[in-house]
Fold:
Amino acid sequence: MSMMMAQSKSESQPIPVTPPRAAVAPGIKMEAKGLKAWFGKSQALKGIDLPLAENQVTAIIGPSGCGKSTFVRCLNRMHEVVPGAHATGTVTLDGADIYGAGTDPVLVRRRVGMVFQKPNPFPTMSIRENVLAGLRLNGRRPADAAALVETSLRQVALWDEVKDRLDRAGTSLSGGQQQRLCIARALALEPEVLLMDEPCSALDPIATARIEELIHEIGQRYTIVIVTHNMQQAARVSHYTAFFYMGELIEHAPTDRMFTQPSNPKTEDYITGRFG
Amino acid sequence: MSAPEAPPVAPSSALPRQATGVDRRRAFVDKLARGACVAATVLAIVPLVAVLIYVAAKGIGSLSLDFLTNTPAPMGEVGGGIKNAIIGTLLLVGIASLIGIPIGVITGIYLAELGRYSKFAQAVRFSADILGGVPSIVIGVFVYTAIVLHWGYSAMAGSVSLAIIMLPTVIRTTEEMLKLVPDALREAALALGVPRWKAISSIVVRTALPGIATGVMLAVARIAGETAPLLFTAFGNDAVSTSLTKPIGSLPQMIFTHSTSADAEWHRQAAAGALVLVILILVLNIGARVFIRRRG
Amino acid sequence: MKRPSAHDTEVAIRPARRPLFGDVNLGDRLAQSGGALIAGIVVVILAALVLQMIQASTPAFSKFGLGFLFSSKWDPVKDDYGALPFLYGTVVSSIGALIIAVPVAFGVAIFLSELAPSWLRGPVGFTIELLAAIPSVVYGLWGIFVLKPFMAEYVGPVLKSTLGWLPLFQGPYDGLGMLTGALILSIMILPTIASISRDVLRAAPPTLREGALALGATRWEAIRYAVLPNVRSGLVGAVLLGLGRALGETMAITMVIGNKVDISASLFEKSSTMASQIANQYSEASDMQLAALTEIALVLFAVTLLFNVGARILVWRTGRMPGGGRSA
Structure:
């Protein structure tokens, strides 16, 4: 805690945000401005300004407890589920503030989907029901449910593995398959942004590789924010990388530049493994 | 002892390597205590077996279709049955469940999901705990003063007593079972843009349903055998009644009045009634446990 | 028809902007307030129970005052009532039940948590819990027709010939009375004490007994000197919960205690408890007698409340909340 205090003093000057890659010049899908968050009395985020490029993969890296998970949760207001958590500042989605008066967090979450650390398929539902859960629970019956299930499962490359046992329990799958099922479940709602909070941390290397491949593929069509403690993973899957340290955004840059010529010495220390 | 190298045998202050008299005594005490625990367990099971054997042996002779489908004969006459009591118990327990289960389950959901740590939820939890420790006869007294004094003895008053008695158990089981559902499932549902009430009702409660159903079945079994509060709420009725506003008979009360009477025929009937009641309760109990084992 | 696939770009086309505003939360607000409303019912019931019983017993309280608790009169003709015989009967029968039940229950608990092979724990635990599922009135029936003759024929004479010089075993004994009442109560509270004690023992860290065993202690020594001292308050809590159940237990004891309004040192004597007196007279009482009986119920409520709250605090401190034991 005392380290954190010292840190916040030395880091009071604004952090320059690296402009997006000129060649691609993507639009900004979401943007956090002055985002601060607390859990009870401890402050997890200390004023984050971070634009998220549309249809690009942005990786959030940093040591444990740096606020990266809190940050993604603030992007679809999932932090509000934790008792005692609150946030200030603005987060815009296509220019509209998701914290604005009258904004419904439920509607925000339909546009900004989320995948968690541990795969969490609904244990009472079959594979098929899991994919359709988001729609069904929201009271919508898709016109062609079978096609939607197939599309969603194909997007996560799970279709061929499970097409013969769609009625088996979602929890009967392996960990990696369960995580892909959870991604399919999120994609079936056709979100615009997909948040992934360390989606591979509970998986073995082979399952991890498959998820990474998948992120690479769907990253063409979705705005993806992935939290990871694994820098190689960030380098492999993302277009942009943001480095968080002690609740602050230290550096945000295109991934290739971040890992070859970081502008902040702290970033360099972290990615070269000097701490964290 | 003073030799610099490690002593080849244990120093004299250390424990001997061979069993001594003290050790044999300790081993004996150990055997004795363990034997006493086993004996206590056997002793504890004796009354259960004795009650079950007695009820079955004495009751089975009087148990016939006539017995189940007739109303009681006047004392001293042979024959007569417990149709009124069976229907009464089913009605009392049914109405009590209709009142107690929804209120109890919703309160449990409120405590586990919606209220959680709020002051109000604490007050509810505390009240339910206290109510759970109130002797059932006191609940009968309460219902008598609150309902019977104004409207007379009735099936409704009996059902309300039983509902109050089952309420704390249902609330506690529901809350405990919901607490076992991992938070990850709540988050998964909310992250799909599902409103909270829907996430709770369709995901959380559905996941905990086998456990909740088991607890509810045990609570129903418990009130099926309740007697004390019925004495002065449902009061008893020798005729078949299905009216909620009239006095009504019940199996436990029939067992009580028959067994404390002076008539040998009634004593046999009391045992037969007890057999019916015990079978009903054992089926609910064993059913509940088989259910949770199968689903859980 | 073309089957959609992951490579089909069309499926990726989404409605550009969906609304962030709406009243989806209406359901949540309704659920929250509706849930609170229904959850409040249990608070209302408890408050109504206390107020209603205070109100209904007011005539007795204003006539007899605190003297009610110390008078042994029970005279419906002169409308003169006191609760002392019933307090006495309840306290003595409950303490007697504890003396019989506690050693057996602890034995069962130790067997189930420490000694029994794992395949035996489930079935035996289930059997003990079934003991609690048998209705009180069925125990009463068994008490009248099996226990009563057994006590009169065997237990009474043996006690009289060996301990007959004690004031506890004086006078004639036909099998009904305080002793039989205490015995049947002990059967009914045994499962409560046994299953909560078992849970308390199970909650004790295994390192306690492993540490003792590693020092060369026998199984019993490990339990006696390493485990039990650490869970003492939980075990006291279990006993208090059993006591709370014994105090309010009605039907079985009403059927075997003899229902005599009397205070006697002899356990062979017929007696009454607070609960049995209410069960016997409530439906026929009116006016002052009704108020007096209601006041007895209020006292019974207060006493059980005291023991239950105390017990819960003790059990809860050892790390486990048991399911509530209830009297029938």
